[in-house]
Design brief:
heterodimer; A: 843 residues; alpha+beta; 5-stranded mixed sheet; 13 strands; flat; disordered C terminus; B: 5-stranded parallel sheet; 5 helices; 41% helix; disordered N terminus
Chain lengths: 843, 129
């Protein structure tokens, strides 16, 4: 049907289709959209029909706001039901583009939710879902959409989990959304996220696995709320956890409970995980099963494998390694050992290439078991050790411990002391030409990492891996000081120092670090226990470190920091080949750290802007209510011919209040423009010789009405003339801001304005006797968008004091507040009487 | 909430922290022959209601207010048997006002910026005698 209605048009071009103008068609579209969610709840079987109606209606009659909803859902059906991933993806992009075109904020978050939660992962690496979901979540907040923001809330942590991210990161992201769900009172969503966190805790070892009683209350609340997604999540999480910790019967029981609930997680990554773990569970139970059970299990496993292969055709990154893993299990069950070995290998390689550390570990573990069972003990042990190392890297420490318990020989294997083995191996054997390919890959993976803590972690892992070091630190330069940002030990466990600790002479050779900081040159000590330039260093003198390397991390002659590496087992661990590799990594590190700092700064800027937009839209709407009501009252009287009844006095008052609201809007808009000027660096001064006392008196006079309305009695005291070269417009604005502030926060209090001179400084003080300002608030009231006294509730954008500070600083002066809570506040402005170049003056 | 006997029309308590909005709405309703009074937040509204000898026919309730917001006011209101039955209409700029109103169990809602006809129709429906 859809192809016919497309009539040769390309999907992306539909965004340019005419708007739906026919009122009947618009009505039908709106009705179809509105009936979508209830039908989904009550008659899910009709849901695709509704969607198709919406789409075909839009294709026939043109685009309306509701068309986006139709296209967005249709995208999901086309990708997940019809298996046309590219077509589905194109419709999802169309839904977003059309929504942008129509400027419909109400549906924007929902559209991004559909793409990020349900469509994108069929085509692209699942890690790409996260930025989409983050944008979607913000759009939901801007549009006031608490429903889809919470849908994103319980799904985003799972997408992050699927992407192979460290488990601690998954836990942290889940926490953010759990708090949001709780605050917005979506309790079933909140409990679902708590279940996800519990699942992560079981893997990391913070919670005991398989404790059904611990999740019973959460599940009961989810089930009572009829939250199908949460029900499915509960059973599938249990399936994965039970399988992971070797309780295969428990896993099968969970899978049976999950099966009838799967409709609720249709077209979500966790639906795919169900297939994978169901197949793995059947495979684990296969050897002990009866002949009948075996036939059914094999058929089910093959079904899972074929579905996974189908998905892998559209997106090999996400699904090929999973298809290979199930394929290996099928081959193994059928006794085709060689085929199974090949497929496990394929699964390991595919998972590694995609960064799916959990599936790489799993494939290694399963392969290891196959080799061990086949009697290939040394290969099996190697693979098992690798699986354990990968689980650890991922953060699944409980799973790593579980492997150790199941394979007691694991800890004794030489690979576990890998750095020693590899250090000697590389100096003893003929591996002179170091393979640069993995280094290039590593450096690419660094440059893809934008979030600083994760970047630092990746860096340390890679550097330790390629350097042949036992211990390493990344030290960042912070002005003249040095801070330890990350440290890795022989087990490759990376510790990030929050905020960065100063390096201590007990743990690091300070003289070496300072030398590298000053000269920007590397230091290599083949054997630090022998006499050398740094022998007197307190740390090196203790004789613990043997091979020592400190290599600068610099970009364009600017030192970002340094890597400090040591190997305490062998001398000469840092061969020229390794140095070559490290030099490449250090250069890449400098660039990546710069990038991630820029990225963090841009993220902060976006957050500030988002906060600002939500405050601005609320504040701009407030004056519109009295404005609109009064205008509509006037127009009613005009139409009704009763204008004269109002009387001249009332009419004048109406006009005045309308004027007041318009002035209020003008002030808000001016404030916004000032902020954007400050940001653009276009805040310039036009200096004239003026008297500050006279200026203050005239501003107070002009604000008499406003002050009177707040029952504030204002006095100006300027005993002597205080003349200077200042921008009169800007200073008037500054004084006006302070007066408005007093009227707002100290109603009913006297307001004393004093102007005096102190040496080369002119001083203006606005003192009120209101509620005062707490010490904490006094620290940041001059920042952007800050409003004290229970945010949201006192009008204004919170820009006044920010702009006031910019004005004072542009004059080379300052502004501060002196206050005792409960006893009023004094805003003190000090300005140099003669122009000096202030830090913020931009001509 | 005054004790004076009203005319043919009922009485309304307008709860909004924005002076301009509150005064405008009170003035318009008085023009239309209602008895109208204002309160700047939920706490002030409760105090007025408890001090008065006769309940108003209708409360127009803003949501975002200092001291005590609309939802907190509603919680207190329904706990007080004397006030629980007073019809209450929420007025808000919040995009989710419909859902919020449903959750609070109030009589209805009006979106900001308020339309005069909507305001008068709503008040007429709930406060006309």
């Amino acid at each position: 049907v859809v192809e016919g209605l497309l009539d040769g048009r390309a999907i992306p071009d539909l965004v340019d289709a005419p708007r739906m103008t026919d009122p009947r068609a618009r009505m039908v579209t709106a009705l179809l959209e509105a009936s979508g969610p209830p039908i989904y709840m009550v008659r899910p079987a009709l849901f695709p029909w509704i969607t198709l109606q919406l789409v075909s209606h839009s294709l026939r009659h043109g685009n309306a706001e509701a068309s986006c909803y139709g296209y967005g859902i249709y995208a999901l059906l086309r990708a997940a039901v019809a298996g046309d991933v590219d077509g589905g993806y194109a419709f999802s992009q169309l839904a977003i583009a059309l929504n942008e075109r129509l400027g419909d904020l109400a549906l924007k978050g929902c559209m991004l939710h559909l793409l990020g939660d349900h469509v994108n992962f069929w085509k692209n690496h699942v890690a790409g879902d996260l930025p989409i979901l983050e944008r979607g979540f913000r759009a939901c907040l801007e549009g006031g959409d608490l429903i889809y923001s919470n849908y994103i809330g319980f799904q985003a942590p799972w997408h992050l989990y699927e992407s192979g991210a460290p488990l601690d990161d998954v836990h942290a992201l889940a926490e953010k959304y759990a708090v949001f769900a709780l605050q917005s009172r979506y309790l079933a969503v909140h409990q679902t996220i708590r279940l996800e966190q519990r699942f992560v805790d079981e893997l990391t070892g913070r919670a005991a696995p398989g404790d059904a009683a611990a999740t019973a209350a959460a599940f009961a609340e989810i089930a009572a709320a009829g939250f199908g997604c949460g029900v499915a999540y509960h059973h599938i999480l249990r399936l994965i956890s039970r399988y992971t910790f070797g309780d295969h019967a428990g896993a099968l029981a969970a899978a049976r409970l999950a099966e009838p609930a799967l409709g609720a997680v249709f077209s979500m990554p966790i639906q795919v995980s169900f297939g994978l773990y169901h197949a793995l569970t059947l495979a684990a139970l296969y050897p002990a099963a009866s002949a009948d059970e075996r036939a059914a299990a094999l058929a089910a496993m093959e079904g899972h494998r074929d579905r996974m292969r189908g998905w892998a055709r559209a997106c090999p990154a996400n699904f090929a390694h999973k298809a290979a893993l199930i394929g290996a299990e099928v081959a193994r069950a059928a006794g085709r050992t060689a085929e199974a070995m090949g497929l496990y290998d394929e699964a390991v390689a595919g998972a590694r290439a995609g960064g799916f550390v959990q599936y790489q570990a799993l494939a290694c573990e399963r392969a290891a078991e196959l080799y061990l069972a086949a009697g290939a003990a040394s290969v099996g042990a190697l693979l098992m050790a690798e699986a354990r190392a990968l689980y650890r890297r991922w953060g699944a420490l409980a799973k790593a411990t579980h492997l150790e318990a199941a394979h007691p020989a694991l800890g004794d294997h030489p690979w576990e002391r890998g750095t020693l083995t590899r250090a000697t191996e590389s100096s003893n054997t003929a591996r002179k030409a170091l393979d640069l390919l993995p280094v290039l890959k590593a450096s690419q993976s660094i440059s893809a990492e934008m979030v600083l803590p994760r970047l630092l972690e990746r860096l340390m892992e890679i550097v330790i891996e390629y350097a042949g070091a036992e211990r390493g630190c990344l030290i960042l330069a912070d002005g003249d000081a040095l801070r330890v940002a990350a440290e890795a030990d022989a087990n490759r466990a990376v510790t990030l120092a929050q905020g960065g600790a100063e390096p201590s002479a007990a743990a690091l050779p300070m003289s070496v670090l300072q030398y590298v900081r000053r000269t920007g040159e590397r230091v290599i000590l083949d054997d630090a226990t022998r006499p050398n330039t740094f022998s007197s260093d307190a740390y090196l003198a203790r004789g613990q470190a043997r091979s020592v390397l400190c290599i600068p991390v610099a970009r364009r002659q600017t030192l970002t920091g340094m890597f400090y590496l040591e190997n305490n087992l062998v001398t000469g661990a840092f061969s020229p080949e390794r140095l070559e590799v490290l030099a490449v990594l250090a250069a890449q590190t400098a660039i990546s750290i710069d990038n991630s700092r820029l990225y963090e700064a841009s993220q902060d800027a976006i957050r500030v802007r988002d906060d600002f937009l939500s405050i601005a839209s609320h504040e701009l709407k407030t004056p519109l209510t009295p404005l609109r009501l009064r205008l509509q009252l006037l127009s009613r009287h005009i139409r009704g011919g009763t204008l004269a009844d109002l009387g001249p006095e009332r009419l004048a008052r109406l006009a005045d209040t309308i004027d007041v609201q318009v002035a209020r809007l003008v002030r808000l808009v001016d404030g916004l423009l000032d902020v954007s000027r400050i940001h653009a660096g276009k805040f310039t001064l036009h200096r004239e010789a003026i008297d500050l006392g006279a200026l203050a008196a005239s501003v107070v006079e002009r604000h008499a009405a406003e002050l009177a309305a707040a029952r504030c009695v204002a006095t100006v005291s300027a005993p002597e003339p205080v003349a200077g070269e200042w921008d009169p417009m800007r200073l008037e604005q500054l004084v006006a801001n302070l007066l408005t502030n007093a009227a707002k926060y100290a109603p009913g209090s006297p307001v004393a304005v004093t102007v005096s001179r102190a040496g080369d400084l002119a001083r203006l003080v606005v003192h009120d006797r209101g509620i005062g300002i707490s010490v904490e608030d006094a620290g940041h009231i001059f920042d952007r968008f800050v409003r004290v006294a229970s945010t949201e509730h006192v009008g204004g954008l919170g820009l006044g004091l920010f702009i006031s500070r910019q004005i004072a600083e542009a004059h080379g002066g300052s502004i501060r507040v002196e206050s005792t809570p409960g006893a009023g506040a004094a805003f003190v402005v000090e300005l140099p009487v003669a122009p000096t170049a202030g830090p913020r003056v931009r001509a | 909430v005054t004790d004076a006997a009203g005319g043919g029309r009922g009485s309304v308590l307008v709860v909004d922290d924005d002076d301009d909005i509150r005064e405008t709405v009170v003035e318009l309703l008085r023009d239309e022959g209602y008895e109208a009074e204002g309160a700047a937040n939920g706490r002030e509204a409760l105090d007025r209601l408890r001090a008065a000898t006769r309940e108003p026919d209708l409360i127009l309730l803003d949501l975002l207010m200092p001291v005590m917001d609309g939802e907190q006011f509603r919680e207190e209101q329904v706990k007080d048997p004397r006030l629980a039955a007073i019809r209450t209409v929420v007025i808000s700029a919040n995009f989710q006002v419909r859902e919020t109103a449903a959750r609070m169990g109030v009589t209805g809602y009006i979106r900001k910026p308020v339309d005069l006809d909507v305001l008068l129709d709503t008040v007429a429906a709930h406060a006309a005698h």
